[in-house]
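Deliverable D4.2, example record:
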Amino acid sequence: MQSIGSSATITPDSQTSISVRSPINGEILGSVSHELTEATVDQTVTVASEIFQSWRCVPAPVRGEVIRHLGIELRQHKDALADLVQIEVGKIRSEALGEVQEMIDICDFAVGLSRQLHGLTIA
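Output generated by the structure prediction step:
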């Protein structure tokens, strides 16, 4: 699948980070940077806006194809993604699998809609 939009990378303004803990047992899972300046936020919004301007010109069926590929990836990694949902939010296995299945279902729905949209219907 080809890249869409910009290859710009936004980096945090600080190396300061906070620990992320599991809601299940309190174990430290990792850390994330939490300090951004107004300038970094502005830069991020600018890049996202630029990407949106090019993305909105892509025909809906082509955008739908991107979402179809996303659905395929979700299906292929459903169990691993459910593991992450369990760890991140402490859900039981069946609920975690349901969360991933909901993402898959939304992808399928969006692919169908992409064939019904023309012009700037959503953009």
